[in-house]
Amino acid sequence: MVAATVRVGKLSRGASAAVCAASLALLASGCGEAQRDAHEPKGFYAVEVVRASFPRKQAIARDTRFEMVVRNAGAHTIPNVAVTLDSFYYTSAYPHLSANKRPVWIVNTGPGAVASPPVQSEEVNPPGGGETAYVNTWALGPLAPGRQTRFVWRVTPVKAGRYTVHYTVAAGIDGRAHATLPSGGTPAGRLVASIAPAPPRTHVNPETGQIAPGAHPAAPGPVGAVP
Fold first, then answer.
1. What is the pLDDT of residues 12-39, one digit of tens each?
2. Nearest CA among 180, 181, 177 for reference residue 42
3. What is the per-residue pLDDT across 102-154, written as a single tens digit (0 to 9) for each?
4. What three-state secondary structure class fits 81?
5. Which residue segment(s) compose the domain that 112 sits in?
6. Cα Rg for the chain, rounded, in angstroms?
7. Which among 125, 84, 131 has a CA at the least distance from the CA of 108?
């Protein structure tokens, strides 16, 4: 916040009013962050996590998806239902990095509808319309009582290992609307996934043309020499 000191001496009533107005304007300009949440309703909103799923077994470079279904379990419309995901990245100890956050999963597309046709500023793989300015947080707007909405992240694992992904549901992103479980707890949880260092071996079944697990079976009999 910007601190302003106004020295008022022998000023006329009109001049004093002008100085006070200027002071208030200066203070307001310095308190923009505090006013940012002025339009978000204040209160507590009951939510239910209907489903949260993430494959327990994954493999490098094999696309997968993290999915959550959130329901409004209260009597009032949730201002802006949002989900924050932690641990899609890890902190690297490698020295002299410009940024020490490195991905465990690359988010190809996040929750929310993607503009069609895409706008010029969008990437080849757009992040989804639910992306917010907050790190690891996606919001899908108001949610009426009794209704539910689905959050889907399409991701690609890029680092082998065993990881725990934590999620938290919010009723808004500006700090005034708070989500709570019907029982009064915090709508949060975690899912564990193990990422194998290489994708499983597969082959194309020549009889069906479909991808099948395992290596391609060896051809029966010896292979004759090419004349």
1. 444 444 434 444 343 444 444 444 455 8
2. 177
3. 899 999 999 998 767 666 555 555 678 888 888 899 999 999 999 999 999 99
4. coil
5. 43-201
6. 27
7. 125
